[in-house]
Amino acid sequence: MAGSGGGGGGGDVDVDGTAPQRIRGALIDLNGTLHVGDTATPGSQAALRRLRDAGVACRFVTNTTKDTISNLLALVQGLGFDISNQEVFSSLTATRRLLEARQLRPFMLLHPKALPDFEGLPTHEPNCVVVGLAKEAFTYENLNAAARILLNDPDAPLIAIHKGRLFKEPDGLSLGPGPFVVALEYATGRVAQVVGKPEASFFQLALSDLGCSPGDAVMIGDDARDDVGGAQGAGLRGLVVQTGKFRPGDEAATGGAPPAATVRDFAAAVDWILAQNAAAGGVGGG
Prior knowledge:
- Belongs to the HAD-like hydrolase superfamily.
- Helices cover about 30% and strands about 20% of the residues.
- By secondary structure, it is of the alpha/beta class.
- The strands form 4 sheets. It has a 6-stranded parallel beta sheet with strand order 5-4-1-12-13-14, sandwiched between helices.
- The relative contact order is 0.21.
């Protein structure tokens, strides 16, 4: 059944009255869910070990565009999480694949720390605009240059690595790239192609990498719309954690069906998964 608030315990039936379906795979958000900045959320390292020990396959999906994947991985490993590079599926990775497949030359509105993930791509005479979390690089000069590329070439696509509205920093909520993408859409009359969460294709690619069908998987994240709403739109179940950017009432803002559960934190989400699997007739197993 759908849970709420603290302990995250699962019920004996799903919301439609059927027996719970065993969860074989989990897509897990990083910043805001496993950690907030350079601090792990309570009990999350031990909870991840319990989830793996139960036989639930894991992939870590992130829209983070303010740093390279290698630096992000170093951060979470330094916090005590046993996560390998092959287990991280990023919107940066998906965007690079898109640019290479379409042979595009990007004008990058992106944080300088993330630019190494795009090394080797041609950028002369840009024929597309790519927007991530640029922070200080969101200057009038840069935004105006991006708009001119789009206005001067009707075939130049506007590509949003993601369109997140806010993200959580240690001192509070900050603007994500979404407001700046919308500004470029408004100025140029374009509609951005979004690559990362909440796009169904992003979750589908991550599940393909995991070798799991949507009905056998769950998404755990602190963003009710981009993490949970996007995943549920792709056929997964979604768990909202009350950490990171979560604010009271967010669980009602998925843009679709309510989450399968709203739980205190990642450790409570793992409790919920293991309870669901126990009710389905075996923890984690096939």
